[in-house]
Amino acid sequence: MEQKNKIFLIILTALLLGGCGQTVDHKGKTPLVQVGNEFLYKEDLRAAMPVGIKGQDSIQFAERYIRTWVEDALLFHKAEGNVPDNLKLEELVASYRKALIVHAYQEELVNQQLGDSIDEAEIKQYYQQNPTLFRATQPYVQGLFIKVPVKAPHLGNVRTWYKQNTQDAVDRLLKYSIGNAVSYDYFYDRWLPVSDLAAKIPLKELDTDFGYLEKKKNVEVRDTAFCYFLHVEHFLPEGEQLPLEYARTEIKEILINLKRVEFINRVKQDLYNEASEDKDIIYYN
Hints:
about 280 residues, alpha+beta, two-stranded antiparallel sheet, 6 strands
C-alpha cells in the first residue's frame, strides 16, 4: 500500500511538472507539485500535517492535501482566464489590499497608544450615566445556597442557619458545609442570575416564574438523595439595571471602541493638517 501511494505521488508530480523546463528559484524549498506557475512545496505539506499523525494516516492526509491543492490551483487558473472584466476585478483586489493595510496600521497604532486598559472610574461613570443601556434579561439574586445529602446530620440546624444573614450563622454553616455539604455557595457579596440557581435546584417554579424568588425568600427542596436550601437576601427584577459586575465587560468594550474611533479620527486630522501645510495635497478644478 505504501509503495502504491509513493507511485501515485511520483506520477502526479511528473504529470504536473511535465513540459515545464524553465529554471525556477525555489528559495531552498523542495517542490512537490506544480500547476502553471504555482508550486506546492514539501515544506508546506509538512507544516500542514497535524501534530502526531503517523503511518498510513499521514499518507492519506498527504494525498488529500495534495489533491485539494491541485484542484484549487486548477480551478483558480480556469477562473482567472474566464472571469469577465478583469480590470474591475483588479481594482477590487487593489481596494481590498489598501483597506487591509490601513486596518493593520490603525490596529497597530491603537495598540501602541491605547492598549486595552480602561480606568475603573470611567467604567463606573459610564454605567451611572447610561442606566437604560444595561437591563437585566432575567432576575438576579444575592444570598446563600447549600446542598446536603438527605442523611446528613443536624439538618434542623441547617434549616435555622441558612435563613439568617448573621456572621455567626454564616460561620456555622460554612464549618458545617466543609464536612457535610455537596455544594455550598455564599453570594451575599455578588449577584447571581436566577438561571444559575435553576440549574442547581430541582424546582420547576424557577423556570416558569421569574418573580418566584421575590416572593419566596427561603426555599427548601428535597428529592430522594439531597436537600437543597436557598436564602435570597436581595432580589433584582427582570428589566432593572444590570449589576455593574455583569455590565463591566460590555462597558469596557464600548469605551475602548469610543477611544479607538476618537484616536483614529485625530490621527487622520493630524495627517491632513500636516499634508496641507506641506502642500502635499493638490486639488484640480
